[in-house]
Target: Serine hydrolase
Amino acid sequence: MKRIKILFLLTLLSIGVVHAQEKEKNVIVETFVKDYNSEDYDDFYTYFSTSLKEELPFNQAKNFFVEMKGKMGNIKSIEFYGLDDNQLALYRTEFENKEVALLNLAINSQGELEGFRIIDMPDNNKKASAITQKSNQDILLESAKGLPAKGQFAVAIIDNDQVNYFGVENKKGKIVLKDNRENLFSMANFATIYTSTLFAKAVNQGKIELTQDANDFYDFEFNNKVRLPLTKLANHTSFVPMLPPLESVSIGEDEFFSGYNQNQLHEYLKNQLTIDSLNMQLKQSFSFLGYAILGDVVSKALESDFNTLVEDQIFKPYKMNSSIVDYQKKNKKILKGINRLGQESTVVPVSMFKYATSTYSNTVDLGKFVQAQFDPTDEDLSLTRRASVIVSPTYWLSSGWKIAFPFGNDTKLYFSRAVDSGYSNYVGFDPVKKKGLIILANSSTEESLKSLDELSFQLMMKLLKN
Model:
């Protein structure tokens, strides 16, 4: 940070603890702004955890804030910006001297401050300029170092009607080039994009109204009289829990996941439906259960099952000839997945959750699906891209896609990042510039996910800047 060099302890906590403490975090943010501007550092210090106080005595903390105040002035405004790689909240903070930075916090289970830092706002233009000097192949080979043994990346870079394919594999510890454009990867929760596309088709066919609630499609009342707007189920702002509760401690999660059927879903809606209030401060929260409800409604409205709908209304029209909905044991094109422990993953049937996590595809087929997004006359795909929630000025949501603005208002990037047990992927595109990026991986280890994020960032920044 050019204006002031700040060294401050940041202890990162687990995602579960952080999500549970969003309310405390908002209290601390408000307190920090008030105490910082009024120079009441004693009060803010009372929010420090015991461990943080041991690492940073009061006098050192006060000197830090005094120096920061002297060089940057009071805080003029603060707003939620997004989450960092550890799922900790970032707040865009504007100071009196017109500097803008990100406030990053870590809160423990008691609602105490465990760590704190001020970091620079990302300068994507500067980063993109440096990235453009590298070749796509060099970026891929460099980023692929995080792949486990037998791990692969399949990449498609789209520029209007031109598609270039790249692929790599970790073969006995060495990253080698590989033509894997025809290999099939599990698409994980990218399946939500297909479900939202079917939702859009039902709306455009007049079988669903965009403003309707899921309740309108059932002949029973939901538990606690909860209303579930379909658009909120689609953009993950309904705050339905991620999964329904396990019915018995003797049932394993995979067994429960694969056996969950429509009758159980309906019983849940009637007798157990709740809203996950702890996550409401996040403004969005991914839910397999939410998409099971949305998909159930869409299937009712279109009078067909998910497999038939995806095959007839998505795969066939967009000529995705190799893509399939369910796992096929004899299909040699399917790559085996590698789970977070680096072991071969097992295939778990998903039953009612296939609306949220299912299907297998390759970069060739997905390239066609992304190119279809460039057609402004496709009303169904256009509806899936219509923004429905503004989470922050640079992060919006539609009924399917996330929307970012990496270079200001000049570039609107639609993207999806999906992960399941053994696979991960990134799909992003700019329908105006007609450029897109697809990255498929047969791994979900921690290192491979970091590699996926780095690879998608670099390739997308380069693509949009060229």
